[in-house]
Amino acid sequence: MAADRLYLDHAATTPMLPQAQAAMVGAMAHWANPSSPHADGRAARAALEDARARLKAALDWRGHVIFTSGASEAIGIGLGRVKADRILTSPVEHDAVLRVTKGAERLAVNADGIVLPPADRAGTPLFAIQHVNNETGVIQPLETLDRAGAMLFADCAQSAGKLPLPDADMIAISAHKFGGPPGVGALLIRDLALIEPSGGQEQGYRAGTENLPAILAMVAALEAREDWLPRASELRARLDAAIGEFGGTVVAPDAARIPVIASYRMPGMSARAQLIQFDLAGISVSAGSACSSGSLRTSHVLGAMGWDEGAAAEVVRVSFGPQTCNRDVDRFISAWRSVADRARR
Length: 345
Prior knowledge:
Elements: E1 6-7, H1 18-27, H2 39-59, E2 64-68, H3 71-80, E3 86-89, H4 95-100, E4 105-106, E5 125-130, E6 151-155, E7 170-174, E8 185-189, H5 212-224, H6 229-245, E9 249-250, E10 261-265, H7 271-280, E11 283-284, H8 300-304, H9 309-312, E12 315-319, H10 326-344
Helix pairs in contact: 1-5, 2-5, 6-10
């Protein structure tokens, strides 16, 4: 990346932390297959199980850990094989959840994207609810969810490593969202009996040789994390205020939001045109989820929150990383003002 570019798309992926890079390089020495019975394999297995224990300690998790290729696979395993009579989810979930729960009940949400309780609680349902929305940054108050004995699957791709984990039966995490490498994540599961086994590695619940270097790098990233959210909160507050001053709209301004993600509407200019203008100014932002923004289709999240298609098509997402500073926010505010001025001409 050019030195003069400003990266404000950390919700899509964030740079690997130096500690994670070092751990990944060092882990290349563990080249043996952890499933092999010989001494080399046993050494790799020991490193793998040590990483599993370290991850649990870093996240204060007392259940089981199934290593995966990322949050999407963890979601597929958990929701695709769960032993539940029915799945209740919401229309503001990540595409990875919506894809694997086709035909499931979609709970209504309010104007902030907060999930509303179901009218029918028959059977033994599973709630599949995102902890932090990847487009708006809105934090679901999962602690107040009236589960009444139901199971909870929490997509924590955007919150793990930043916020404490919610009290859930299953949790999906992704390393490249908190400074680890892409292509690795985990399904945290309180009881393995909640899902059907598939055979293969990972205690018989995920086939495929474990990516030990990436796993060790993911754990190193979790152990190296710092609490930079208070500083991010100040930056986001400044940005929110400036966007409002220059005629923009903050998405879900009154909701509890993680400080590192925010979405803004610029009336009169499409998100596609904004992305081009910001990119020409050397600034990287996005229009919603990176997993779907290649098509730049209108956000299903904003639609579920009551936004009309025209307004939703004018929203971009800005997301911070640990190194984002006042100078970066000032540069984006200046660029926003210039682009917004052109939109009003």
